[in-house]
Design a protein that fits this description.
Layout: H1 3-7, H2 20-23, H3 26-29, H4 32-37, H5 39-54, H6 60-71, E1 78-79, H7 85-88, E2 95-96, E3 99-106, E4 111-114, E5 133-136, H8 145-157, E6 160-164, H9 176-182, E7 186-190, E8 203-205, H10 209-216
Parallel strand pairs: 1-2, 6-7, 7-8
Antiparallel strand pairs: 3-4, 3-5
The structure holds adenosine-5-diphosphoribose.
Residues 2-4, 7-8, 13-16, 19, 80, 98, 164-167, 170, 190-193, 195, 208-209 line the site of adenosine-5-diphosphoribose (APR).
Length: 221
């Protein structure tokens, strides 16, 4: 899943109409260089993202994915989203390629701090005095290797691959359809807009995620 999955819950996308990167330059808010230059500014931006995310609720599509995972335990969820919406809908073991808004880490001590329910950060600094940074893969960051290995493993083994609400321009997710196809999977894209990858899919649904998932998996409702 990508930002379009959460868009239906009211969380803004990154590149579409009203996308976050039209309003905020990622160079000032979503990279390690910006964090080193002005940590408080970057933390403010992410705190705002948390406050906004908490105003939104998972939609029927998230709930169907949770129901799918409950019924078929070999369903894997791989998301580029950092808003924790799948978990709020009750999904388990979500592979979060780009990290999570709800975790902070101290790079000096290698500690992680999780807080799933508060918009405001409980602490902006570690007890060692270092600023905590959101545990997110920012622009120019390396992805977490074990997360990518996990995602690659489940996608290369799957027999049904559904891409929901991503523009498919950011790697490695941009290559996941091809990985799934190579493993013999049937590939479905759900996105109201055409993407650069649309032509690679076996089936394309040009409607919002909740609507399509409700139709495809109506027996789970
Ligand atoms: N249902 C399905 N798809 C939708 C919906 C909806 N209701 N609404 C919008 N979309 C689609 C848009 O058409 C667009 O193709 O969601 C896609 C969102 O694309 P992006 O904003 O580019 O988001 P994403 O692909 O998740 O971005 C990948 O880029 O900025 C980084 O780290 C950030 O995780 C993000 C990554």
């Amino acid at each position: 899943t990508g930002a379009g999955m959460s868009a239906e819950s009211g969380v803004p996308t990154y590149r579409g109409r009203g996308g976050i990167w039209h309003e905020y330059k990622w160079e000032n808010y979503a990279c390690q260089t910006a964090f080193i230059r002005n940590p408080a500014h970057v933390i403010d931006f992410h705190e705002l993202r948390r406050i906004e995310a908490l105003k939104c609720e998972p939609h029927v599509g998230h709930k169907i994915i949770t129901a799918l995972q409950t019924k078929y335990s070999n369903t894997s969820i791989v998301t580029q989203n950092i808003d924790g919406m799948h978990q709020r809908a009750g999904s388990q073991e979500v592979i979060e390629l780009h990290g999570s808004l709800w975790r902070m880490r101290c790079d000096k001590e290698g500690k992680l701090f999780e807080n799933l329910s508060q918009g405001k950060y409980a602490n902006r600094k570690c007890s060692c005095g270092e600023f905590l940074r959101p545990d997110i893969i920012w622009f120019e960051d390396q992805l977490n290797e074990s997360t990518v290995v996990n995602a690659t493993h489940v996608i290369s083994q799957c027999d049904l691959f559904i891409s929901i609400g991503t523009s498919g321009v950011v790697w490695p997710a941009a290559g996941f359809q091809q990985l799934a196809k190579k493993g013999g999977a049937h590939c479905i894209e759900i996105n109201p807009e055409k993407t650069e990858l649309s032509y690679l899919f076996d089936d394309v649904h040009r409607e919002p995620a909740g609507q399509v998932l409700s139709r495809l998996f109506d027996s789970l409702l």
